[in-house]
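Hey,
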Amino acid sequence: MDDNNNLMLETSGDDEENRELIDEKSNAEIQTENISEEISKEAETAPDEILERSDFDEGCGDEQAEGSEDEGGAELQKEDETQAGLFEAEGEPLNAATEAETADFAEQTTEKKKKKGHWIMPSVIIAICVLVLGIAGGISYLWFFDNSIEGTYVIENPDADEQAIKNYYIFEAPNDGQKGTLKLLFGSLDFEGTYEFVNENGTSKIALDLMAVNLYGTYNYRVEGNKLTGHKIEISDDAGNAMNFVPASYQKVELEPIKNAKMDSKLVGTWQDTAGYGIKYTFNDDNTLIMNSSGMTIDCYYSAAKGDLQVKYQAEEIVENKANYSFDKDALILNQMEFKKVEE
C-alpha cells in the first residue's frame, strides 16, 4: 500500500514535470511562430528589387517551408546575407535587372536635358527676333518720320571754291522746351543765336535770330531726305529768296601762333568794358586771346609789350590787327575804351 502510494506520488511528480516541459515547448513554438509572422510581414513590405536580386532567397524559401525551432534566427541571417549580396566587389551591379534600371535612369536624364535644350532655343530665337524688330523699327522711324534738323550744315553753292573757308551752320536741339541754339562757325569766329518753330496763320515756319550776321526773322522752311542719309533744309523768305542747307562735317581751321610773341603779365586775366557794350577780352598766359561781344566769339593769338598789342585770327583769310594799350591804376585803356578786370 505504501509502495503504491509512493509510486503514485512519483507518477504525479513525473506528470507535473511533463506538463512543465509541454508548456515550455508550447511557449517556444508560439514565440517561433510570432517571429516567423514578423519576418513574413517584413518580407512582404521589402522592395521587390531587393528580393529579386538575392541569390540566397531561393534557398531560404525552402528552409521556411520546412520550419524549425531556429527558424527566426535563420530568417534574420537570411535578411542580412540578402542585403550584403546586393552588389558585388567594387560596387558593380549584381545582375541584369540593376543594369537595366541604370540604363533607364540615364535615358530619362538625357531626355530631360533634350527637353530643356528645346525650351532654351526658342527663347534665344524670340530674343533675337525682338532685337531685330526693334532695330528695324528704329531705322524706319529715322527713315520716314524723324524730321528734326539738328546737325551741321553748309549753304549749298556749286560755284564755291573748295579751298575757301566754309561757313558752318550748327542747329542744336532745344533744352526743356526752350529755343534751339543756332551757331555759325567761320574760321576763328563763332557766332551764336537761336531758332524755333512757330505757327503763323496755320503755317509752320522757322524763326531765326543770328543778329551778328543779320540773319533775323521768320522764314518758310522745308525739310527733305531722312536722318540716315542727312536732311536738306530749304529756308526762304516770302519773296522767294532761298538758302539751301546741306549736311556737312565740321572741319576746324588751325591757326599758327604769332612768331616770337611777347607777353605782358599785367594783361593776363579777363577784362570787361565799363560802358556796358558787353565786350570782354580774356588774355591767357600762353598768348591766346578770346574776344566776346554780343553773341560773337573770336579765338586769337596775341603779342603784347610796352603798350603795343598785336592780334591774329582767321576769317576768310588771316587777319592781323594792331592796337595801343595802357593802364590807369587798375583800369585797362584799349582802343580808347576803359576795361576793368573781372573774376571768372
